[in-house]
Amino acid sequence: MADKIFGYIALAISIGYGFIAFTIIKAPFQYDPLGPETWPQILSVVAALCSLYIIFLPDRIHLKILGSTLRRVVIVVVLLSAYAYLFEPLGFVLATILFCGVMSKMLGASRLEAGLFGVASGVLGYGLCAGLLDLNLPGGALFKALGG
Known about the structure:
The protein is an all-alpha fold. Helices cover 74% and strands 0% of the residues. It has 2 domains: 1-64; 65-148, no CATH class.
């Protein structure tokens, strides 16, 4: 029954996201064959189809969500929300370093490993996305401090 409830919640979220993707997201120009509007639309349709699959799938396994698991899910949602909120003011590099470092620590990495993973994700991710893929990412506080 828990998976059905999850399916209905996911369907409601994907319908809301789909409404935004199909009606509100408009790009002033197209810079790739599919355009920036297409990816959110595809994501909303795929999410809705996956939700329907979960809803209509017969119950085979009864899941019990333990309190510790639910707590970790809530923590991840809070971390993702903080990442989204801090993405522009801090910039891609610093926000990604913080998010990836905290997430890897939560998943069992040592402080050193979490720090190294966070720095590598932020710096290499920026290099890949901004340099190689030519995406426009916010520089934020780091680039302002460096004079850029």
